[in-house]
């Protein structure tokens, strides 16, 4: 399984809200009142096509498809 930094995942969150923030030139993380240390409180599979994370900043709407996770991994190559 590929490994990703938590902040990397959170910053690239794919939900409409985070996409909107990025389109405005804002970072999806950290938002206002965000906890100092980012954590995943819960992770669950969504069907058989992706993963949903519940972040400790209360954000739970992002779904990361396996396809996207694989794509990010390919982009990075071996580091
Ligand atoms: Zn999001």
Describe the 3D structure.
- The protein has helices at residues 6-11, 16-23, 66-76, and strands at 40-46, 50-55, 63-65.
- The chain is α+β, with helices and mostly antiparallel strands and 79 residues long.
- The chain has a single domain (6-76), classed as NE0471 N-terminal domain-like (2-Layer Sandwich), CATH 3.30.2020.30.
- A hairpin with a 3-residue loop joins strand 1 and strand 2.
- The structure holds zinc ion.
- The site of zinc ion has 8 residues, from helix 2.
Features:
79 residues; three-stranded antiparallel beta sheet; globular; single chain; NE0471 N-terminal domain-like; alpha+beta; 3 helices; binds zinc ion
Layout of helices and strands:
Layout lengths: L5 H6 L4 H8 L16 E7 L3 E6 L7 E3 H11 L3
Antiparallel strand pairs: 1-2, 2-3
The chain binds zinc ion.
Mean pLDDT: 91
**Helix-strand sequence:** HHEEEH
CATH topology: NE0471 N-terminal domain-like
By CATH, the architecture is named: 2-Layer Sandwich
Number of strands: 3
Report the C-alpha radius of gyration, rounded: 13 Å
CATH first level: which class?
Alpha Beta
Hey, roughly how much beta strand do the residues contain?
Answer: 15-25%
Any idea how many domains? 1
* Ligand catalogue: zinc ion
Counted by DSSP, the helix tally is 3
């Amino acid at each position: 399984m590929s490994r990703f930094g938590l902040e990397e995942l959170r910053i690239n969150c794919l939900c409409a809200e985070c996409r909107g923030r990025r389109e405005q030139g804002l970072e999806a993380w950290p938002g206002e009142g965000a906890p100092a240390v980012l954590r995943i409180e819960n992770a669950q599979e969504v069907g058989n096509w992706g993963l949903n994370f519940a972040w400790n900043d209360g954000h739970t709407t992002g779904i990361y498809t396996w396809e996207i996770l694989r794509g990010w991994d390919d982009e990075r190559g071996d580091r």
